[in-house]
Amino acid sequence: MSALTVDVGGEVTLEARVSLPSGATAGVVLCHPHPLYGGDMDSHVVLRAADACVARRVATLRFNFRGVGASTGKHDDGRGEQDDVRAALGALRRRLPDGAAVALAGYSFGAAVAAAVARRTPIAGLALIAPPVRMVPISPPAVSGPVLIVVGAEDQYCSAADLEPIRHAMPGVTITVIDGADHFFFGALDALGGAVEGWAAALAT
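Below the sequence we write its predicted structure tokens.
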């Protein structure tokens, strides 16, 4: 794993960490939870998802959104953060072979931002972990590969029932509901990791 600075433009740079397994032909940019509530790239859920991807030899780039940690700029309620994600996607693509599959994964606020980017930016896969659909609607993305949504059965911001419209709008989506887990996945990280690892394996094929 290496430290990296991602240039977004407009005097915004992002603190990032990249992991490039030998022979990786796919990569994932991971987006962290809400920065105003303590979210950063070292979130336990983001780290577990990153580990699951690397276990399948999928490269990862996780970063701090603008205004978090050593990233410059200010929080922008999910608007400028979309530029952060696009810059991170470009940074990861430049470190992978031409034609490599590059995907997005996000947790909570990060899932909402990732989904917003995926509506307009073609990507090879999308994993939404605990997307807060009761607060931010999720629209069908422009994704050519596997789409995964993982929620806890006790999630305070997204129930399995809330995901039914998404299931109908995206027939190929895989929705995994983890029993006993809430929005934070305490005690359920292994199950979460298993779901993400399966998605990463599909991305890498």
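The radius of gyration is 15 Å.
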